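Sequence, structure tokens reproduced for absentees:
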Amino acid sequence: MVLAGFIAFMGIITAEVLYPDYSTRQEISDLGSTVPPNPIIHQPSATIFNSTMLVTGALVLISAYFVYRALDRRGFPLALAIFGFGAFGVGVFPGNVTPWHGLFALLTFFSGGITVVLSSRVVSRPFSLHCGLFGGISLLVLISVFFYGLVIGGPSPLEFLGSGGIERWVAYPLVLWLLAFGGYLLGNAGKK
């Protein structure tokens, strides 16, 4: 999980640097391809981003298997596996592959937030509070976008961040959690 978080974070940063005139106000997935009708694909950013998502997703899926074997709780490893599957799907289906990219991105964000919240039940305090906070922030921002867009019919109060800034408030708590949770597991390896 530490490796998955590291690869996700550094892969996104590397793709951003190599994307001409990229702004963090743009969606993260623009690094792989913008959406139709006129998709823009910049290389090597697209290959780096899409590969990053494939590798991150695969590593999270592998982690879910080992977490399943190590823990009695079944819900958390299943949520972790869905999170990894979603991330892998984001790499398989770049932004120009509609509607699949959007569906896998939504699956990644929603299942990731749920996974992080559920992880608070398998770790001790004070780290469990951090897990709840990271997952809660990610889910709250994600749900607020849908609430304001579908129920209120207006822009999110976070609109000043741009769609990319809002998306980062959903995605980055998940990536940072991968690093922190993986480190927690490594630090507790072998302890009874």
